[in-house]
Predict the structure.
Amino acid sequence: MFNRNYKEKTIESVLFSVSALTVVILFLICLFLFRDSLLLFKDTSLMDFLTGKFWYPTSVNRQFGLLPLFFGSLIVTAGAILFAVPLGIASAIYISEIAHPKVADALKPFIEILAGIPSVVFGFFGLVILVPVVQKMFNLPTGQTALTGSIMLGIMALPTIISISEDAISSVPSTLKQGSLALGATRWQTMYKVIVPAAISGISAAVMLGIGRAIGETMTLMMVTGNTAVIPAFPEGILSPVRTMTATIALEMGEVPQGSAHFHALFAVGTVLFIITFLINLIADSIKKRYRFKVD
């Protein structure tokens, strides 16, 4: 009995230590990012950084404007979500409610495999296959555009959206479905008037996590978006080359002098990206908790 209690206490202590270590690591990451990014504002004001329209880090009159990078990330992520959300939710409904169990069991492993493919492989696919198609379809000088990046990010976000949405739809109590059918509703009416509204919290969490997956992507966007740090014009900006915040950090960090203003500006961009992703994850977690509460 004593040995059993001792083992339980030991396991509990180990689990607590691992959890505490995770919190400490997150705190150190925040401290590391904020410390180096704040040094930028000795020479550049915060408003100039947040509202600046130009990113010229190596010119004589250097400018560290976040807006071109922010809007590049925004337009690519928005396009990815517009592409991935309808397709992902429709796929989740098909797997959960329409497909034969054998077909559903065969599709799920392929979705999980898609989630595990390295981003550089997606980048090669986009560069070799999708870029020429976009260039030829819209008669553009180059196919490396925000549209290409949006499509590739949408494909990469699909596994997250499909998996979580399918779990949410499958968790809807069968009594709701049976009650709807018993009252005379058709199968399709039951799906979009009963099942989807009942699972909307889980589906919303899937969308938020898909956004977080898309906005933090680097390698694929470096290869297919053209990496032009200008504010994209509206509405044709989707067919223009753009540069995202993640791609900027990856492209420039390896060559920037350590401790320079440019170095600290990249940390400031990383801090903004960290805050955005952190907020998205908090919102998604809040939605998932609300969903679990309703299901319970």
Summary: Residues 2-42 form one domain.
